[in-house]
Design a protein that fits this description.
With 165 residues, this protein is mainly beta. Helix content is 3%, strand content 46%. GO terms for molecular function: GTPase activator activity; metal ion binding; phospholipid binding.
Length: 165
């Protein structure tokens, strides 16, 4: 990847109150897209509250670019049914990556991110220092659907030779 500034590890933890697309349930999976990169979680059968706990890693060239998360109901013989989507604004997370972590204690809050028109946060999100890493836990409110949220965690991974902050 040209002009790679780092890697973004996205841990897709779980879905909350996702819509039912197959009678009383769904077989959801998540597709994460940024530019030409497209990754997906495994599917979870018969659940509107799936536990994925899958880790997906994207190469980041432009931290101003949004990451799109789409949830689908897996169908075997027909096209997958959409179950909502959300955008992840990684810019606030990227902006704190230059923080000097040597003086931080475990659990230190670095920044709070409030829900806004620039993100799909269902509630305020905290960027914290934990076990030597800067992490952000988020609950994303799905759009274009009756109900549903997805809980994720993001982590920045520096790449040798990438530009410094």
């Amino acid at each position: 990847m040209e002009n790679l500034v780092g890697l973004l590890r996205i841990r897709v933890k779980r879905g909350i109150n996702l819509v039912s697309r197959d009678s009383n349930t769904s077989d959801p999976f998540v597709v994460v897209t940024m530019g030409s990169q497209k990754l997906k979680t495994r599917g979870v059968e018969n659940s509107c509250n799936p536990e994925w706990d899958d880790e997906l890693t994207l190469g980041i060239n432009d931290p101003n670019q949004h990451v799109t998360l789409e949830v689908y109901d897996k169908d075997t013989f027909t096209s997958h049914d959409p179950m909502g989507d959300a955008e992840i604004d990684i810019k606030p997370f990227f902006e704190v990556q230059g923080t000097d972590i040597q003086e931080l204690t475990n659990g230190t809050e670095i920044r709070r991110v409030k829900p806004s028109g620039d993100n799909c946060l269902a509630e305020e999100s905290r960027i914290i220092f934990s076990n030597g890493k800067i992490l952000q836990d988020m609950i994303l409110q799905l759009r274009n659907v009756e109900s549903g949220e997805v809980e994720i965690q993001i982590e920045w991974i520096n790449v040798t030779g990438s530009s410094d902050f």
